[in-house]
Design goal:
It is a single chain. The protein has 264 residues and is of the alpha+beta class. The protein folds into two domains: 3-117 and 231-263, no CATH class; 126-217, no CATH class. Helix content is 49%, strand content 15%. Strand 8 and strand 9 (230-231) form a beta hairpin. Helix 2 runs antiparallel to helix 4 and helix 2 (24-46) runs parallel beside helix 5 (233-263).
């Protein structure tokens, strides 16, 4: 489990509880609104908004002076330097708040992607797959899927009839076990990378010592069907998240400006 996957320990039982009362579409709506609230609040709690607003005014003035300057190059340099310095200061002030705002989004996206990207195959369902090796020159006889009785079922690129107990099936390359069938419908099996310390692959990894680069499965995407909407969870999540984040940001920023005006 990667660092950003730990919140799923809490998020999964929450979603399972919600599934007893709400359809998938309403749960995605809930997660998108909750993520928008967490991201916006994280930004407002960490951003020095008054200082950013002050820098914005100073930057506009510096840019206006730069655009209106009509002298020699020696006089232009300090104006350009001031405008550039203010731009970097403003960027630095917004960098950490932006990262704090992105963090809840990243965590929820990982959780939803692992949970709702694909439909878990049923026993007997045909699933296409493709094996990619480093040189793409291995023969189909060098790898196979098999169960506990060592029954080979397919070669390099083909279709797998999904077994009733996928945890008992392994993939062998040159008589060496490379991986098991993924316990969850994640389409890409690969070797462990450094970034898997942050974001793990819930389907597991390939053995690092073999020439296989990755194994890709063609699982069926999970669809949400409403009367007014039909598509994947991402097509519902992103627009709702964007609208809610923008609306909440404008509301909180307006409230902040009113409070600043009342104090002055």
């Amino acid at each position: 489990m990667g660092l950003f996957d730990f919140p799923s320990v809490v998020l999964t039982p929450v979603d399972e509880f919600l599934s007893d009362y709400f359809s998938l579409g309403w749960r995605i709506t809930f997660w998108s609104i909750l993520t928008a609230i967490m991201s916006t609040i994280a930004f407002f709690l960490t951003a020095p908004l008054s200082r950013i607003a002050s820098l914005k005014k100073m930057l506009k003035k510096a840019q206006r002076n730069l655009n209106q300057y009509d002298g020699d190059f020696d006089g232009l340099k300090p104006l350009a330097k001031k405008a550039l310095s203010l731009s970097f200061k403003r960027l630095f002030l917004t960098l950490i708040p932006t990262l704090c705002a992105v963090l809840p989004l990243l965590v929820i996206l990982l959780f939803l992607s692992n949970r709702f990207d694909y439909v878990k195959p049923t026993s007997g369902q045909a699933v296409d797959y493709h094996v990619s090796d480093s040189d793409n020159n291995s023969t189909s006889s060098e790898w196979r899927w098999f169960d506990t009785s060592n029954t080979a079922v397919m070669a390099h690129t083909g279709t797998l009839t999904w077994p009733s107990q996928p945890e008992h099936w392994v993939f062998q390359y040159k008589d060496k076990t490379v991986s098991h069938l993924p316990p969850v419908p994640v389409s890409f099996l690969h070797k462990p990378q450094w970034w898997n310390l942050l974001i793990a692959n819930p389907a597991g990894y390939l053995d690092e010592s073999v020439e296989i680069d990755h194994i890709q499965f063609s699982f069926t995407p999970l669809q949400i069907d409403y009367g007014w909407f039909s598509g994947t969870w991402a097509l519902l999540f992103y627009p709702l998240y964007t609208l809610c984040s923008l609306g909440l940001f404008l509301f909180l920023n307006h409230r902040r400006k009113r409070l600043d005006n009342d104090r002055s």
